[in-house]
Amino acid sequence: MKNLKFIIISVVVLGLLIGAYFLVTSLNKEEPAQTPEAEEIVVMDDTNDGVMTFAYSTDLGDMNFTKMSGSWSYPSDTTMPVNQDFVQKLADAFTKIVATREIVGGDEAAYGFEEPTLEASVCTRTGHTRVYIVGAKNEMSGGYYLKYNDRVFMIDSALVDAVSYSLFDAIPVGKLETIEADSITSLTVNGEEVPNKAGYTNIGITTVENYKDKENYGFDGTEKKAVVTYNEKSDITDENGNVTSTATVEKTYSFSYVEKDGMAYVMLPDDVCIYNATGTEALFTEPEAEATDDTAAE
To answer: What's domain 41-170's architecture?
Structure first.
């Protein structure tokens, strides 16, 4: 009898073990195999040191910036205005260089270092100099070959993408003052009232054309000067900062522009840049008359 009980219990336990085995096997089949992530190779990390000077060449031109007293400048032409945030982002791209793998052996001639995509020289705060040469793009992976200290690496496209800008992209872009058409009380060009005051809102500046040689663009004293007079409401507050009333203040805003060879150029106050412009002709276009009730009925 005892033997019979033992046999029954053994069969039950064996059945449970078999069931557990098939359950675990089924779960393992349902879960996809985990692919280990590629290990990041740090080529250089100057995060704690900081990039203070960088120069590089691409097919978009040469870039060269130096940071002194907390501000970036363009040593080749110190009169050029510099977008500090933009140039800092360029410098940050060189602060830490990482690779997906190191390439040992092989024919370097096939990596494109003779005609590089990017060639950069970087100097850190403590005076360390780095030279990075980015060669050809690997069309299979989308990455690039990088040469540093006679070692060859494969990097992704982040570095090349981060610095793919021209010199003019590093110049801060200004903008015309935003003025509502209904608030404009007067708009003159060279002292004469224009037909369409609301035409000011049609003017737009697009890109920086240049920041020097103003005379070549017609800013030689013969340019047109536009003066906008407008009303602006401002809050009047008490000593506790509470708004007690609203006052209307008359303000003026002026800018210069030139129409030359089918192009329009604008210069803004306190801004050395020359901008491509659109819509200046709207100032001299008679505004469309508002339809009256009788006209609308027709």
So the answer is: Sandwich (2.60)
